[in-house]
TrEMBL record:
Keywords: Membrane, Mitochondrion, Translocase, Transmembrane, Transmembrane helix. SUPFAM superfamilies: Cytochrome c oxidase subunit III-like. This is Cytochrome c oxidase subunit 3. It comes from Schistosoma haematobium. Component of the cytochrome c oxidase, the last enzyme in the mitochondrial electron transport chain which drives oxidative phosphorylation. The respiratory chain contains 3 multisubunit complexes succinate dehydrogenase (complex II, CII), ubiquinol-cytochrome c oxidoreductase (cytochrome b-c1 complex, complex III, CIII) and cytochrome c oxidase (complex IV, CIV), that cooperate to transfer electrons derived from NADH and succinate to molecular oxygen, creating an electrochemical gradient over the inner membrane that drives transmembrane transport and the ATP synthase. PROSITE patterns: COX3. Belongs to the cytochrome c oxidase subunit 3 family. GO terms for molecular function: cytochrome-c oxidase activity.
Amino acid sequence: MFSCFWFNDAANITISYSFSVPILETYLLIMSSLMISMFHGGVVSEYSKKYVYSALLFSLVFIYFAIDEFLNSSVNSLCSPYYASCFMLVGLHLSHVVVGSLGLIELIYFDKFELVRSKSEMIVVYWHFVDFIWLFVFSVVYIFNGNIF
């Protein structure tokens, strides 16, 4: 994240082709976090699985928009070290969202086993951490464009 500040030699062009895409991505991750919280609160309920399905759907839509954003960006990672840092930061976060989505699939698939129910807290905490980190990534890359100082 520091490299986005250090190498900020670019114009005020964000890596996204539209500012509404990162806003939508933020909404999707916040909603997925809400769904996971509702699942975690009712983990023994027979209806709690629908919250995991919803969170997984939100995460898959986030992944789609993030990949679309990478493919349709007006700049690329070769334009400057700043853009390379931003793409690396967003891409690293995207890889963690993919891993978290695999954890959500695990919660759905192995829900009937007591072992997964007892270990679901680890997946829930990981998912909240990924959402929390996105707020920093969103702030640095999209809102401030590396121009905090």
